[in-house]
Amino acid sequence: MVQALYQKQIAGHSTAELVAQYREDPAYDRVDQVFFDEAFPAISNTQDELEKKIDTIIDRPLEQLDPIELSILLIGVYELESRIDVPYKVVINEGVNLARRFGAAESHKYVNACLDAAAQLLREIEVLAGPRTRG
Questions:
Q1: How many separate domains does the chain show?
Q2: Which of 9, 10, 99, 122 is most buried per CB count within 10 Å?
Q3: Residues 6 or more apart whose Cβ sits within 8 Å of residue 71
Q4: Alpha-carbon dihedral sign for residues 74, 32, 90, 99
Q5: Could you count the other beta carbons within 10 Å of the beta carbon of residue 13?
Q6: What is the domain-level CATH number for residue 37?
Q7: What does pTM read for this prediction?
C-alpha cells in the first residue's frame, strides 16, 4: 500500500487506476487483499482530509515531507482513526517497520514520533488507559 500511495503522489494516477494495476500485479497475491481493497481506496479518496490531520502533528510544512513518509503517515492516521480494532501501539509499530523498510535512514524515528502524536489526538482514551493488565 505504501507503494500505491507513493505512486499516486508521484505519478498522479487515480484510485481506480492504482487498484486495477495492483490487483493485476503478482505481488497482490502475497498481501492482505481485504485490507488493501478496503484501506487503499479509503485513504486515497480522503487523502486531503487525512493530510489536514497530519499537518497538525508534524513539525514542518506538509510539502516538505518525503513521499514515503507521507504515505506511511497516511496509512497510520487512517488506521488510528478508522480501525479501532487495531491497538494504537500496533499501528505505530507497523508504521515504524514500514519506515525502516522503505524510508530514509532515520525516518522511522520521525514516523514514530508523528504517529505517537496522532495517537494522542485520535485515541486519547486508549492512550490514557495505558497497558491492559490481567486481573
A1: 1
A2: 99
A3: 1, 2, 5, 6, 9
A4: negative
A5: 16
A6: 1.10.940.10
A7: 0.91
